[in-house]
Task: inverse folding
């Protein structure tokens, strides 16, 4: 029984088993696994779960990872995999990308999750939706639910590796975020953190000017908590934003 939501990123597979395919459904079990270890899911984390009635997921990893997940679902439960492909419109959100299907599925699902989370607390308003992971995305949604566009920039790890590979002798441990760094480790960590914070702040300014009102800002992703102390704009940190979006999409797709 129940519904299995899966989010396959560039580094980890995250999953959540719910009692039903609808927002607010009881969470029965959840977990995360690095992609190199997903072969073990059927005999470990998923072994004791009851068979879900349906599965819906979003994936940005390579086709080989997709096939492995689909094989795991078929092997354990004979469950067909269903993946979100961004469309021109879904679940109240309009896709303003030049080529809608080329938008990252995780970006699309997170925006849908943020849109419905915001609607649950008040009237529609513009949004800025930030995901901080291997890469960082910063999305803008107007008060009608139209995705206006977004930024993509490297996450902390990619920034550091790029500097190490392109700068002779620059191999230092991760430091702390400081207003005025006085060593190379802190300088690198602070530079990456404030670069991400600056992109978010610039998008908030763009949305404020374009929409004429203050946007609500949501942040999610495995490294979102690292950004929290360094943000100058008000935001809500929501670990489950992609799962929120998958539940909303599932409710509308699977309703009787």
Result:
């Amino acid at each position: 029984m129940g519904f299995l939501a899966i989010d396959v990123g560039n580094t980890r597979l995250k999953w959540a088993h719910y009692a039903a395919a609808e927002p607010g459904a009881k969470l029965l079990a959840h977990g995360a696994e690095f992609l190199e270890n997903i072969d073990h899911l059927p005999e470990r984390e998923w072994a004791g779960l009851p068979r879900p009635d349906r599965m819906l997921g979003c994936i940005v990893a390579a086709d080989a990872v997709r096939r492995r997940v689909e094989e795991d679902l078929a092997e354990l439960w004979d469950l067909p995999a269903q993946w979100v492909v961004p469309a021109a419109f879904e679940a109240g959100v309009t896709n303003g990308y030049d080529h809608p299907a080329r938008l990252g599925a995780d970006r699309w699902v997170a925006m849908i999750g943020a849109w419905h989370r915001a609607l649950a607390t008040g009237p529609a308003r513009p949004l800025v939706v930030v995901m901080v992971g291997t890469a960082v995305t910063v999305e803008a949604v107007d008060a009608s639910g139209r995705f206006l566009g977004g930024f993509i920039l490297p996450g902390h790890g990619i920034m550091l590796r790029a500097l190490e590979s392109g700068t002779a002798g620059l191999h230092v441990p991760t430091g702390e975020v400081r207003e005025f760094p006085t060593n190379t480790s802190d300088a690198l960590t602070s530079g990456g953190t404030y670069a991400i914070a600056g992109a978010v702040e610039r998008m908030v300014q763009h949305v404020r000017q374009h929409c004429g009102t203050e946007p609500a800002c949501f942040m999610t992703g495995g490294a979102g908590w690292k950004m929290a102390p360094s943000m100058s704009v008000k935001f809500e940190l929501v670990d489950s934003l992609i799962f929120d979006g998958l539940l909303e999409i599932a409710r509308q797709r699977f309703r009787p």
User: Anything to note?
Assistant: The chain has six helices and eleven strands.
